[in-house]
Amino acid sequence: MINRKKSIKASKVEIKKAETTDLESSFSVINQCAIDLRKKGMNNWDRYTKDKVLDIIRSNEMFLLLVDNEVVGTINISQVPPSFFDASDMEKWESPDSKAYYFTLLATSPNHQGKGYGSCLIGFAEEFAKNENAEYLRLTMFPNNKPLKDYYLNKSFVFRHERVVDGLNLKLSFGEKKLV
């Protein structure tokens, strides 16, 4: 029996840097994920408006996963920690002063989930960070999303702490993976 869950082979898959002309397709994927998360009781992606996504694209830190020229995934990769990080978060890392990259907005449109595209984007983020001589790849996530947390743990991420982020009124888990 063929395991179609992990089968990407039959399609043309590529990752490219997002451009402003990709706003509609990028926002569509992010918005689909926000709706899907909301149905599961998590509203942590509701803050991503079209204008905010455009700002992220303009920062040259968003990448898109395309399957047969259709945008089905996004990831934001930055050396700058997200704005809601504070000194207490930075102190909790295994090696706070080591060079690290942070990824956010890892999104795969719901009708393309379970096909390995998220793993493809994480692998891309790891290689990107390694090529920039980073020692760590870091993330935040909604801690109540146990399947997602297990997914990251399976990919060798270690969660260092959790806290309620002021201004967002969300509890987040802070995780990292050593790359070197």
From TrEMBL:
Q: Which residues form the signal peptide?
A: none
Q: What is its EC number?
A: 2.3.-.-
Q: What enzyme class is recorded for this protein?
A: transferase
UniProt KW keywords: Acyltransferase, Transferase
Origin superkingdom: Bacteria
**Does the entry feature the keyword Transferase, yes or no?**
yes
InterPro entries to which the protein is assigned, alphabetical: Acyl_CoA_acyltransferase, GNAT_dom
Q: Which residues form a coiled coil?
A: none
Q: List, for all copies, the residue spans of the domain called N-acetyltransferase.
A: 13-180
Q: Which CDD domains match?
A: NAT_SF
What molecular functions are annotated in GO for this chain?
acyltransferase activity
One Pfam family assigned to this protein is Acetyltransf_1
What is the designated name of this protein?
GNAT family N-acetyltransferase
Q: Lineage of the source organism?
A: Bacteria, Pseudomonadati, Bacteroidota, Cytophagia, Cytophagales
